[in-house]
């Protein structure tokens, strides 16, 4: 499998990470042998330096540096919150039209990978802005509900806590479809069996930052996740409606 490169120059390279692919080798899954970092290195025949991460079930824009110095500069931008990210998700229920989730999150530690980390850290500030783009109601009873309701939402995290979007959406009772850790098992099973949807409905569509060397604005944009698009189409959304929803600010 070839990774889709969405931007490359002599300093950075960005790809569309498919859902289900780990960014790099991890103690969380010792048996996995395929990773985005190694695949990209072999594909472009150059060492790459990851500067951020996407959860395994999340698809979308993944940025690498091509030198340790550039990696340091990009990490500094991320630390100073000078990088903005735009995600899209499909969630359970009719989510509010828009809002901001201000809910501190206690750091989630993995029993294996984080066994040496401090266990008593206080919750960290976490902010997520969101906007509902379209809602859907399907004539199928799921769990205690007589119909199945979902929303397509735009998510703009202002902080970068582990599993922030997944945990924030679960906190306001609109968990992301397909999230097996924080989501709704009955809804996940329904979309899997009824619509053959596998994985989690969360994708990083865009990253906006300052180029670390050239110092000009750099906007990295991926294509919309095909799995999510196919699910929305099966609910009656047309490709033009989806395109208009995710590009609405450009057309105003």
Brief write-up:
The protein is of the alpha+beta class.
CATH architecture: 2-Layer Sandwich
CATH homologous superfamily identity: Pseudouridine synthase
For this entry, what is the oligomeric state of its chains? single chain
CATH topological fold name = Pseudouridine synthase
**What would you report as the Rg, rounded to the nearest angstrom?**
18 Å
Class from secondary-structure proportions: alpha+beta
The share of residues in helices is 10-25%
SSE order, one letter for each helix or strand: EEHEEHEEEEHHEEHHH
Mean pLDDT: 91
Using DSSP, what is the number of strands?
10
**CA(first)-CA(last) distance:** 38 Å
- Largest sheet report: 10 strands, mixed
Q: How much of the polypeptide forms β-strand, as a percent range?
A: 25-35%
Describe the structure.
The protein has about 250 residues and is an alpha+beta fold. The protein has a single domain, classed as 2-Layer Sandwich (Pseudouridine synthase), CATH 3.30.2350.10. The chain has 7 helices and 10 strands. The chain has helices spanning about 35-45, 70-80, 165-170, 185-195, 225-235, 240-245, 250, and strands at about 5-10, 10-15, 50, 60-65, 85-90, 100, 125-140, 150-155, 200-210, 215-220. Strands 1, 2, 3, 4, 5, 6, 7, 8, 9 and 10 form a 10-stranded mixed sheet that branches. A hairpin with a 3-residue loop joins strand 1 (about 5-10) and strand 2 (about 10-15). It is globular. The mean pLDDT is about 90.
């Amino acid at each position: 499998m070839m990774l889709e490169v969405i931007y490359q120059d002599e300093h950075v390279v960005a790809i569309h990470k498919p859902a289900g692919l780990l960014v790099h080798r991890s103690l969380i899954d010792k048996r996995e042998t395929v990773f985005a970092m190694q695949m990209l290195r072999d594909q472009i025949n150059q060492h790459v330096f990851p500067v951020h991460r996407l959860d395994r079930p999340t698809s979308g824009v993944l940025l690498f540096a091509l030198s340790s110095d550039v990696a340091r500069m990009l990490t500094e931008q991320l630390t100073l919150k000078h990088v903005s990210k735009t995600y899209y998700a499909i969630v359970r229920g009719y989510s509010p039209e828009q809002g901001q989730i201000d809910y501190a999150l206690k750091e989630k530690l993995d029993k294996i990978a984080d066994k040496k980390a401090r266990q008593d850290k206080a919750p960290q500030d976490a902010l997520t802005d969101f906007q509902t783009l379209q809602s859907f109601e399907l004539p199928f009873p799921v769990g205690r509900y007589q119909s199945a309701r979902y929303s397509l939402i735009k998510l703009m995290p202002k902080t970068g806590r582990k599993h922030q979007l997944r945990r924030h959406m679960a906190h306001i009772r609109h968990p992301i479809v397909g999230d097996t850790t924080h989501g709704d098992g009955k809804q996940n099973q329904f979309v899997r069996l009824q619509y053959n949807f596998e994985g989690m409905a969360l994708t990083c569509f865009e990253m906006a930052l300052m180029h670390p060397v050239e110092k000009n604005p750099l906007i990295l944009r991926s294509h919309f996740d095909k799995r999510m698009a196919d699910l929305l189409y099966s609910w009656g959304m047309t490709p033009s409606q989806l395109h208009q929803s995710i590009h609405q600010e450009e057309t105003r």
